Amino acid sequence: xxxxxxxxxxxxxxxxxxxxxxxxxxxxxxxxxxxxxxxxxxxxxxxxxxxxxxxxxxxxxxxxxxxxxxxxxxxxxxxxxxxxxxxxxxxxxxxxxxxxxxxxxxxxxxxxxxxxxxxxxxxxxxxxxxxxxxxxxxxxxxxxxxxxxxxxxxxxxxxxxxxxxxxxxxxxxxxxxxxxxxxxxxxxxxxxxxxxxxxxxxxxxxxxxxxxxxxxxxxxxxxxxxxxxxxxxxxxxxxxxxxxxxxxxxxxxxxxxxxxxxxxxxxxxxxxxxxxxxxxxxxxxxxxxxxxxxxxxxxxxxxxxxxxxxxxxxxxxxxxxxxxxxxxxxxxxxxxxxxxxxxxxxxxxxxxxxxxxxxxxxxxxxxxxxxxxxxxxxxxxxxxxxxxxxxxxxxxxxxxxxxxxxxxxxxxxxxxxxxxxxxxxxxxxxxxxxxxxxxxxxxxxxxxxxxxxxxxxxxxxxxxxxxxxxxxxxxxxxxxxxxxxxxxxxxxxxxxxxxxxxxxxxxxxxxxxxxxxxxxxxxxxxxxxxxxxxxxxxxxxxxxxxxxxxxxxxxxxxxxxxxxxxxxxxxxxxxxxxxxxxxxxxxxxxxxxxxxxxxxxxxxxxxxxx
Length: 610
Hints:
Blueprint: H1 16-31, E1 36-40, H2 56-61, E2 69-72, E3 77-81, H3 86-92, E4 99-102, H4 108-115, E5 121-124, H5 131-143, E6 147-150, H6 155-159, E7 172-173, H7 176-179, H8 183-197, E8 201-204, H9 207-213, E9 216-217, E10 230-234, E11 240-242, H10 250-257, E12 261-263, H11 267-276, E13 281-285, H12 291-299, E14 303-307, H13 310-316, H14 320-347, H15 355-367, E15 372-375, E16 380-383, E17 407-412, E18 414-416, E19 419-420, E20 423-428, H16 434-451, E21 454-456, H17 461-473, E22 484-486, E23 495-500, E24 513-516, E25 519-522, E26 526-529, E27 532-538, E28 548-553, H18 571-588, H19 594-603
Helix pairs in contact: 4-5, 11-12, 14-15, 16-17
C-alpha cells in the first residue's frame, strides 16, 4: 500500500571493508610523503547534501551524517562530529579504529595541535575546504611546527576504485509564476551589492545562489533541487554560468543564454585566471568558496575580497509570490500530515507498525497530493530510544517496532514547486509517563514563546534562541542543536544566513522563513521535538516607537494534546495553542474524508485549564 520512492533504508557499510580502506588510505598517504590528511564531509561547494561521488567521509569511516570531518595520522584516526551526531557516530563507526571527538568545542584544530609532531606534513584538498578552514588548519600545524600541504588529486579518490560518476540530472526552468522575479531584476540587485563591496566581480560558488539568480532548478543532489554549477557576475557586463552542457535542454539553454554566457565547468579556472591577471578584485563567499579559488586568484595577480555572498541574504527574503507559494505548499502539506497522523493514531496502538512503515506512509500521503517533487530531507522517524538520536535515519537493521508506551518522533518535509516544508511532531503511543508529559510541555512552552515573540527590526536569531530554552533550563535541561534554521523557496530546507541559534548573528528580516523546533532528548529513552515553520512579518503593536516584527506560523498540523500538562501552561500559552488548533481545523478539515475529519476534530479540540 505504502512505498518510499525518494528514500532508502539500506545499512551503511561497516566492518572489514572499512578497516581495509583505512589501511589503504594510510598507504596512499605514505606514497605521497604525507604524515596525515584531513577528510571533510564536503564537496567543492560546501553543500549540505552531496552526490554519492562526493561522499568521501562516509566511504572511509562509515559515518553518514551531514556534518563531520576526519583526520588520519599514521597511528591515530579521529572523527569529529557535533552534538547532533554523537550517538549516531558511535553506532556507525569502528571505535577501535576511530576516536570520536567534538567538531565544535574543542574544534579539530585543538586535537591536531596536540597530535602533530614537528616536521609532519598534513595534507588537505583545497577544493573541499574554504579559505577560513584552511587557515585554521594552517594555524594548528604552525603550533606543532608541522606543515599544511595543499594536494592536487584527492588521495581518497585514488583508492576509491568504485567511486560513482558525477551527477548529470536535467536542469529545469523555475517559472516566474513561482520565482516572482526575473533574472534581469535579480542580476541588477546583485550588481548593486557588488558595487557596495568594492569588488569588480563576484563568484557565485553556492549552487543555491546560481539556481536562485538564474531561476533554474535541478536534481544533482538528493532532496534539494540543485543544478551543481558556478557563475561569475561582473559589476558591469554579461555574467557567465559554468554548468555541464549535458544537463541542458534546448529550452533551458535558451533561458540561460538570455541573461548569461554558458560555459563548461572546467572553463571557470581559465576565466578566473584571465580576470585575475588584470589585477581586478574578485569577491568570494567565505562560506562556500573553495580555498582553491582563492589560491588561483591570488597566484594570478588578482585580489580576493572575502565576505558573505550577497545572494544569500537576497534569496532569504522571500517576495510576495514566494510567500503565497509557501502558504499554498503548507496548506497542501497539511492535508497529507492530517491523513498521516490519523493513520498513526489508528494503527500504532496495535503494535504492528515499524519506523519504516511510518516513513513510507508519510511519503505516500504526500505523493498523493499530486504535487510532490521530492522529500526535503530523509524523514527522521524514531521511536523509543531511536527518537533520542537527533538526526536518526532508520535502516532495515535499526528499524524498530512502535509499541504502546513509546513516543514516536517524526521530522519530515516536502519539496513542492511552490514551496519547501519542514515539520516535526512527537506522538504518544499509548499512555505517556508523567516525565514525558513534563518534558513535552516544557518543549511546547519554548515553541510557543518563539511563535508569540515580537521583536524590534534588526533582532538576531541569537537574541531569540533562549526564548525556546528557558523552560528546559528551569529544570536543568537543554537540547544540543539550534532552535531554528532558514528555509528556501523550492530550494534548501536548511538555508542561510539567518537562524535562531546561539550563533545566529544575521538580523531577521520580514519575508524570511525559519523553523521553530526546540526539543528534548533522553539518551536511550525517547526524543521530543515540535517544529513549525515561521514567516517573519510586521507586527501591529500600538505605541511602538520603532518597527516591530513577529512570526506568522505557516505549518498546519495538530500538536499531540495527550502529551500536554495543561496545568503547566499560562493562560496566554493555552490561548495560543487553542487558537492554533482552531486555525488548523478551519483551514484543513474541508479537504479530508469523514474519518480523518472526525480524527482532526478530536485532535484540535480546545483544551481547558480546569
